[in-house]
What does this fold into?
Amino acid sequence: MGGGAGVKVSLNWLKRYVDIEEDPATLAHDLTMFGLNVESVEVCGGEYTDVVFGRVLECGRHPDADKLSVCTVDAGTGTPLNIVCGAPNVRAGLSVAVAVQGAVLKGGFKIKKTKLRGVVSEGMICSEIELGIGDDAGGIIELDMELEPGASLDGRLGSSDVILDIEVTPNRPDQLSHFGIAREIAALYMRELREPELFDLETGYDFPIETEDDSDCSRYSAAFVGDINIGPSPKWMRDLLISAGVKPIYNIVDVTNFVLLEMGQPLHAFDRDKLGRDGIFIRRGRSGESMYTLDDIEREVGEDVLLITDGETPVGVAGVMGGRDSEITGSTKRVLIESAWFDPRAVRRSSRELKLDTEASYRFEREGDPGITVRALMRVCRLIADIGAGKPEKLHADYLADRELIEPRTITLRTKQANRLIGTRLGADDLVELLSRLQLISVEDGKDINVTVPTFRRDITEEVDLIEEVARLYGYENIGREEGRCSSLFSEVSIVDMRNEELCDRLAARGFAEVITTSFMDPGDPGSFEWGESDPRSRHVEISNPLTVAQSALRTSLLPGMLRVIRRNAPVERDGIRIFELAKVFLQREEGRGLPREELHLTALFTRRSAPLQWHGEQRDFDFFDMTGEAESVLEWLGATKDLVMERIKASEPDFLFEWILKNRPAGNCGMIPGRVLARFDIDTRVYYFDLLIDVFPPGRSGRKSYIRISQYPAVKRDLSVLAPERVTFSDVRNVVKKRAKHLESVRLFDYYRGDRLGERKRSYAFRMTFRSMEGTLDDETVDRTIDKVLAALQNELQVTLRSE
Amino acid sequence: MSEEIPDRESIDRIGEEASRDITEASELETLERARIVWLGRKGRLTSALRSIGKLPEDQRPVVGGMINEWKEKLGVLFDNRCAELSGSCREEEPCPGDATLPGRRNWEGGLHILHRVIRNIKEIFYRMGYSIVEGPDVELDYYNFEALNFPADHPSRDLQDTFYVNRDILLRTQTSPVQVRFMEKNEPPLRIISPGRVYRNETPDPSHAAEFFQIEGLYVDKNVSLADLLNDITWFIHQFFGPDARVRFRPHFFPFTEPRAEVDMTCFGCKGEGCSICQKTGWIEIMGAGMVHPNVFKCAGYNPDSVTGFAFGMGIERIAMLKYGVDDIRRFLGNDMRFLEQFWNKTWVGVQE
Ligand SMILES: [Zn+2]
It folds into this structure.
């Protein structure tokens, strides 16, 4: 769950529409609790206590740096300060703003005495940027006031302001403006909201506006301004724009930006005399078509791009950026100001296609207010008239494809449903009162209310949207929590989950470190492991937009990721690493369609020594039977050893890989990872592993249903040493013994030998059998008879003989 | 060998003689001979046991027991001597000289810290009546977005950069699809949590990972309210972080819930005073929550007028980072042993004091 992007609002600006007495921290907290998450509060401009008036007395070259000057500055400190300055415009005689030692500038930058390329500097001559009062980084401020050197400049430079950075979620485009935020503040504190002053426009200007497809652009309004007088905007406007992070350019552009930030409606001014034909036609681009945008880049504008054209030539990308060739210049005489409502999806497509995100596209994509287009024009015309930037025409043009778009909606809100969802006991009158604070006007209708939703709240489309507003206005902190809920709904046991948790505990207790590795793998990994075409592990799922090639496949085995853990831990230099992971792998289905098969695996890897280095006895290398010992323990715990068969994987010759089969289904595999595979992972120690398909093992208590009584009689132990032909495995011998030996409690192999001394192709096994009866103490004759039977069976069935010495 | 009638004295005599033979055997061969003589199938103790029937009935159990005791004792003696002679074991006293020598140890192991945190959270909700349900990591676009009220081509999808397999199949960006799948198959009332891995197409940095773990919860019944949500979450936070944690709820936006709440709790670092962890606010975001949106119910085939419900979700890494001061989210899937083993100790889990 994430948030949205931020909007920077100036406190001074907000105060134009609503009274704010709260200090910035309180305001930030209250807004946050009201659902407008304030991410930062920044005080800027004006409030610098240690920034003083100074005069540059002398100015010379830095001995070691061409671009630096060394100045002596009178800052009222008695002895003049020695200051190194990098600005091109510094010169003797200039009046400047000096940050002396102890001053803290924008961004918490602290002024200290330092050395710059070997020359001592005892302060800083400031530019607008450092003081946060402008965006001119090109040079230091040249002050045109006369003060005593050392006089504080507090309050004399720029305007002091507070900037709130507010997170705006995608459903609330109405908050992407100062007036929108002011509306929320007015609702929060129940204060009066002052509307911006407007120019009196009337509809009826004779100007052709047409669209190729109404669904791309449902409304296009335009105002016309003559007698354009290009020049700088007044200081108050420049200050507000700078505070909000927008660079002032000149009046006509500044007013459109101002209205964007004030009302949230993107505007665009065209030089009317540069429109080839006096009209606007909105259409999709044609394949092969291109145009220059304002940023002076030629862009291909194909069918996925929505264009503003003058009937023929594109003059702008709708809702994204204007065109270079109709840009306002110093010689512009007449402008057309566009205020439109484009289809959010169309703008999103254009913006994606051109990889161009702008303030305008950001707002259009979030579905702004179609009802505001003309109001925004009235506002911009008023500003243009007020600052003398031009003479607005009395009439405007307005293309509206669908009247319904600007009709307020009416939604019924059931009081009972609101209370049920929030857990309150509000009356219909309470709801009316609460909602009115957000300009949501409602009338009671019996127990329920009918709410009229203005067009600026296009996010409110159904009852539940209103309920959320009620909850927000009522205050989450006021929602009662004293009522304890008593539900008869209880948890269900998940046997699978329990089994998996216990399994992990068991491995941890046996000295394994649990790892959690990435779900991604390198598509080359199956090749590195030499998994054949027929191996399901070589059919991986591909990510179409991966972060990197090495992460472009989903893992089909835990082995590659876990080998990388071993590799990564090589520098840790442990004498042994034992790791396990219980996680999913993803196998592409045969038909290659639909969701992949997700298989839960338990994989363990071992390397280096069998036990930690210690003073008791020798350390030895981890070997195959250390691995199978661990695997047997897990398999026994899983309750599946009875039906489990272990077979050498034939395809793996000459490697040492084995497979477990449970009732004809593969249940896992194990062995030593071949050295050439390890080499591909840059590992030079032996690595053993086992890998179990956990889903194959029944999770529940499927084994024995009742306990076995315990005998109270003593056991009889007998050791046998037998000689077996090469093809006979110990498991064959054990199976015969188990089948034939009555009262057998256990068979434990304690010696195994294979070698020349026994003659060709022979092995010897020595094992201890423990016998115990439920009925009484076994006597030797009985056991002897049993042993004789066992020996006879071994001889008959396996040609295994008693070793005689 | 003549068959003597065993009595207590003769048994002890045989036993002592056998012990001497075994302990004094100087090589494996003599030891094996001694074994055959005394303990073998035709050995003296065995034959003594065989002739026990010649004793009066009341003496048989006593003498029989003695013989077995000796057999046992001699067996141990034999094994020990055998081991000594094979040279695999040294002369041992209970603790040779220095009892502070380290004891014989095997490898230590432990669970991954994320696993421990997930388990803790799961257990708390489990006790509160939530059942555990899981679902696939690779999901249909429908379950991950559409059924959760994220329309196609809508900026709300930008909140979650997505890995795609193809147009319709993606790696889930949240565990909420599990909830939709569960609702499709089950009728209310229901109360579940779904832990699992989720994926976001974000370039990893210290605070962002392309894959991480989430736990989401869902409760649907006839009259579940926002107040109930606040109750359950507050209870959980007090259980997990300790009763001193303060909790606050504020409005926020998640497409599949409405009304919705972002949940903050007092900062671990400063207990609410303000520090760098909480960006001086004293609060940190811990989870998102809200009332299930009617559109989500419709997709699941429920009637939004007859049921209500709440959902919440939290990122596990984030909680673990905050709780244990981990500075880089990439540590968790990095699996450096030196990182992992720090958390094996018992003191790393459970409720924050
Ligand atoms: Zn803090």
Observations:
- The radius of gyration of chain B is 35 Å.
- The longest helix of chain B spans residues 60-86.
- The longest strand of chain B covers residues 211-221.
- Chain B touches chain A through 100 residues (CB under 8 Å).
